[in-house]
Amino acid sequence: MGDVSSQVLASFEAREKYRYFRILVIGRANAGKTTLLKRVCNTTEEPCIYDEKSNSLLEPTSERGIHDIDRPFAFASNPQFIFHDSPGFETGDKSQLKKVQSFIEKRAKSTEVDDQLHAIWLLSLSRVIALPNFWRRFCFIPNTARFLLDLEKNFFNEQRAGNIPVIAIFTKFDHLISQVYDANLEEDENREVAERLLKDSLRAPLFEYKFPPRVDVCLEDMHDDDANHQEQVKELIEKTAESLHDLALKILFVSLQQNNLELCVKYVVQS
């Protein structure tokens, strides 16, 4: 018991050296990245970009957007969360994958605590190829290979530098429900069809690769102010925290959750 207490105390002390929690966000077009990050940070403000010296905040412009992986951005109300933005791999441009891999390697090798990368959120839309009603109801894996982009397969098949956890996030599940909607089925039945399709054709293939995500999360209606988005954010935070092996980082991560105090208490009590 004494060894465990000493370990926890050391983790709380180590947490003091961390000032920021840094996340690389990789997402396809229209995956809802900015909306998700606003929900995570519990804000309606627009993100701001750090300059090259990381000591002042610059407003994004059309010439200087947030899609530069090397330029961090944050929300002024929650500056301890540092994000890096990378477009998804739908263009098929191999140089984009190499740039992401190089960024991860560079951050993994950093000896400066504030420069290290702590987690990767990879966003994909919850959508599939349009299917006739018959196949929607009775065939749930028409061709799983087509649901993953070639560069996404490469990303999960090639070893990445460091031990940075990847969390796969399927966004806009509500769109998938609409896509498979059958007027002959009840609402719950349509949802069940969509959930099974998501599980069999989108989630399952991911975890068959050599270096799969550590966990995955499914989100819906994040754009809707009246939806239960904070419950979904809580799940994302919990799964991200569970994927972190360093207790000090885990304590840092949950302590930044200004809108999830219950989660902070949970991890402190567990510790």
Automatic annotation (TrEMBL):
Domain spans labelled G: 22-105
Name this protein carries in UniProt: G domain-containing protein
Pfam family, one: MMR_HSR1
Coiled-coil features, chain-numbered ranges: none
Organism: Lactarius akahatsu
InterPro entries per UniProt: GTP-bd, P-loop_NTPase
Gene Ontology terms for molecular function: GTP binding
Top-level taxon in the UniProt lineage: Eukaryota
